[in-house]
């Protein structure tokens, strides 16, 4: 497979469309981009909303705020200028206060608004995953509802009716889950659970994939490739624990080797002792037989072969000494 292949059959889940409502300067109307699984080039003049669209997709795929940085392509000095709250309220500049030296941030919406982000992905097997997030204010606090569906959703059709009590969630649950054997839409308690489901359903190896996506979105200059790969593409491994386990296994293997060597030495000593015993018996039998035969021949008597009972005969003193030495080696090994 080509590393840079862009065909849907070889590239896993690919973005089909993304919709945004009340996000940044995209106000009161549902805006939609439709790559339909293809590579797309996003162009436009300065302040036309390119970074706003990219940050919307980044928000859907990287829900943890500590792993996400908005407006990365605008430079380090502007990375902290945009937040979820500023996008929901539609901040678009500052205005000089008349008669004072202070400035007022201009915004398109107040805290009674809601914001919806939605993106649908499809793979070669025609499986669909739709990510969506709904934001609204409860007093002064910005609330976020995280959800995921196994079918295509539309902001206009599925999120038109909204209330802070949560009746819209119950309506979606009844509409898509009541008659389905498998849940088609799920809501999550927070960004951690939502991120874990993204990793699971998109078949990613770990949460580091989301952090890597955040880094890749705004990368312009890569100073140290090794450092970038080590920090963002490799999972942290417990090296010290693995070393301790390896050391313990090595010690166990050395102990087994010592025991095996002792057993091998004992086996050699036993074999030597058995060869000595068998050799001494054969030598005694042979000497007795040859002596008797010679005497009968000298006397002119017929020779008769006979088997001597050597188990009652003692071997020579030298052989006994060799046998005792072999047994001592075996006993002390």
From TrEMBL:
Biased-composition ranges for Basic residues?
279-300
| A UniProt-annotated Pfam family | AAA_29
| Region named Disordered | 279-301
Q: Which InterPro entries does UniProt cross-reference here?
A: P-loop_NTPase
Please name the SUPFAM superfamilies in this protein's record. Answer: P-loop containing nucleoside triphosphate hydrolases
Q: What is this protein called?
A: Uncharacterized protein
- The organism named in the record is gut metagenome
Q: Lineage from the top down? A: unclassified sequences, metagenomes, organismal metagenomes
